[in-house]
# Entry
Amino acid sequence: MGNKKVTVIGSINMDLVTSTHQIPKVGETVLGNSFHTLSGGKGANQAVAAARLGAEVTVIGCVGEDSFGHTLIENLKQQGIYTENIELVAHASTGIASIILSDNENSIIVVPGANNAVTPEMVDKHEETIANSSMLILQLEIPLESVIRAAEIAKKYNVKVILNPAPIQRLPKELLEIVDYLTPNELEQELLFASFNGTDEELNKLEEKCIVTKGSKGVVMYKNGAIEIPSYQVEVVDTTGAGDSFNGALAFALSEGFDLTDACQFAVAVGAISVTKLGAQAGMPTRNEVEQFLGCGAYY
Ligand code: RIB
# Structure
């Protein structure tokens, strides 16, 4: 049994989820089917995924001093996540994501709000927490300079870093060099590689760190060449947070000592199970549920 202390530095959002048969065109109004207010944010989602599986998880992030902020912290506490490192900020409202679900696909607008208050100085205050982690997970819904600072601190203490480069933006080579795993989706990988300013050898090294998530097609990882890990056939209700489930599960499995291929296989199963319920976090399974799913003839 490994050291399962997973630290997540990232966004905490309230997801405002509208489901509709038809996405309106500019200037058009349509009637939707349902509306839900659900806990989300890539950072929080990844934390919940790892915690449900049994990891000891700490979240470092910011919410506003508003009802969404308090509700989101309470939700994380209920998952057994350590929330004392989450700051309530007065000058910004809690991050939200406006999500439209239509035909098993989603469109998302994120308004970061308080997530932008996760500054490099705030990250510095948590150096000890980062140093004592087995794994640090980062995404790009907080300021980039804070992501860089967190990765630098982790590197100083040999703590492994997963960077989920979402939403994608141009990333400095120095950051890409110090993270251990990169988990883009196909589009993010394309943009990441297109904007990468380095030699072919550096690009190859970058590719080797990538685990590319491909939705219902599973993932591709690189170990002496590309290895495809297919996903499972499930009844899809909502794909929001599937990538987050994958990332949280990957962190858990690597902390548990799984080798990379096994960790990816496990995390793909977690991602598949997670899309069977509405909302980013509702479908995230416990370890027992994953084992039952895999043991009960779940098929590719
Ligand atoms: O990855 C899904 C998440 O992205 C949603 O929960 C939403 O909050 C956005 O951050």
